[in-house]
Design brief:
Layout (H helix, E strand, L loop, with lengths): L1 H14 L2 H4 L10 H13 L2 H10 L4 H13 L3 H10 L11 H20 L7 H11 L17 E4 L4 E3 L4 E4 L1 H8 L14 H10 L1
Parallel strand pairs: 1-3
Antiparallel strand pairs: 1-2
Helix pairs in contact: 1-6, 1-7, 3-5, 3-6, 3-7, 4-5, 7-8, 8-9
Protein name: Mycothiol-dependent maleylpyruvate isomerase metal-binding domain-containing protein
Pfam families: MDMPI_N
GO molecular function: metal ion binding
């Protein structure tokens, strides 16, 4: 699943023009190309490069990752696509989040890119199910603050998937995934008596 998502991302990158690459993504203040740079850096950047940036960033992993993504984004888009294909089968399995974290990173960032560009999402149901289970399962460190899903019931109406108990947050799996990971734009696609509380938590965290 992960390897295929990397190749699909490479195919997407090959279709983007300069204006699209410079468009703001849903991921903080990153452009589309910087999001791509982040995905490439996770599998293609030398460990020594990350270590140097960690030192420069005061050992703040988030700042180091942002700087590394920016460096990668300075490369031509075709080169980034090539690196995604070259390293598509990289067996990287980060601690705690493991393979589900890798798959989730690709799916969420894919939507960070596609939504602002108005491109179809083409997400695979079985992969979305893995990601949703991961996001509410307590291991999604760096993806979902622990308190965000607590006391709410989430339902993906197009998957027959649900988790949790409490006020309901219901919608398509893609919108549930994006809202759990803090993308405010996706909240408008959800319904239920728990949506207001989820929106409040996203705005606070």
């Amino acid at each position: 699943m992960i390897s295929d998502e990397r190749r699909r991302m490479a195919d997407l990158v090959d279709t983007l023009d300069a204006e699209q690459l410079a468009t703001r993504s849903l991921c903080d203040a990153w452009t589309v190309k910087e999001v791509i740079g982040h995905l490439v850096a996770a599998i293609a950047a030398p460990n020594s490069a990350l270590l140097k940036l960690l030192v420069r960033s005061g050992f703040n992993i988030h700042k180091a990752n942002a700087r590394l993504a920016g460096q990668m984004a300075g490369r031509p888009a075709g080169e980034l696509a090539g690196l995604l294909r070259e390293h598509a089968d990289n067996p990287l399995q980060p601690p705690i989040v493991g393979y589900p974290g890798q798959l989730t990173d690709l799916q969420v960032h894919g939507q960070d890119i596609r939504r602002p560009l108005g491109l179809p999402h083409r997400l695979e149901p079985e992969r979305l199910r893995v990601t949703l289970d991961f996001l509410v399962g307590g291991r999604a460190v760096g993806f979902v603050p622990r308190r965000r899903p607590l006391g709410l019931r989430f339902e993906a109406t197009d998957l027959g998937w649900s988790a949790g108990s409490g006020p309901l947050v219901s919608g398509g799996a893609e919108a549930v995934m994006l809202a759990l990971t803090g993308r405010r734009v996706a909240v408008a696609d959800l319904s239920g008596d728990g949506v207001a509380e989820l929106r409040h938590r996203i705005e606070r965290q």
